[in-house]
Fold this protein.
Amino acid sequence: MKARPPTSSEPHSAADATTTPAIEWAITNGTVDQVFTRVEAKLSQRRRLRLAAAGALGVLLAVGTQLWQPVRVATERPVAVVPTLAATVPRKEILDDGTIVELRDGARLVVAFTAEIRRVRLISGEAHFEVAKNPQRPFVVEAGGVDVRAVGTAFGVQLSAQAVEILVTEGRVVVERPAEATSTETGPLAHSFGRVDAGNKIIVEFARPLALVPVVPVTPSEIDERLAWRTPRLELNSTPLVQALRFFNQHSGIHLTFADPEIGKLELSGSIRADNAEPLLHLLRHEFDLEADRYPGEIVLRHKR
């Protein structure tokens, strides 16, 4: 007679009490292998369910992270733009003889006039000279051991660590290296680079042989670009037009005003030349629909009719 397996109604007190009778029954009936196979299947199924549940929870957390993002509330107020106006004007000096010198930022020079010669030494940077005419008293600019000799003319000189550049804008100059600045095995020897006429430039490189220094023609547009630092400019940042015009009128040679006071409140940003009204008028026409009524010595701005 075969023993029956225990039922759930029979008493048991611990884990061993719930498993041992069943194993004993299986041993008695020769079905131990079948019992262990079924138990292993149940355990594998439970493990799969736990892994699936954990995977599903991870997906939910990931999706939740994607969907739930903290909302950032802007608590800071926008920074107010402070209207500014900056003017760049080259430093200008008038020498004792009436020569006008414009100095770029950082330029330094020393003036040494005598009764026979007007000599100026450019120590660093760049300068432009409008020389007062005096044939009996030559005007010489020395830069980096190079002399630029003129009588009445206009030219620019730029001195760097590598070279000295001379750009002639009016008249003619003679460029040379004096004897004390040029030496050979036989002793000091002056070297002349020749004459340079208006619309030409010459660059004397200190590491280059003196004989290989050509005179190079320069177009008017290249001259304007090269000497753009001489032009007064306005740097505007949300600047009311009325403030910009005050400075502009000091440098343009013409008076700009407006018919409606509201026009003066318009704000401008950017960089413009302060010696030429046309770029400013072009800007106002296209950005603010303003027209310019032209009168002798005066331009009046108004809204388009």
Observations:
- Residues 1-19, 56-75, 182-189 have pLDDT under 50 and may be disordered.
- The chain has three domains: 15-61, 91-228, 231-303.
- The helical segments are 15-29, 32-67, 220-226, 241-251, 277-288.
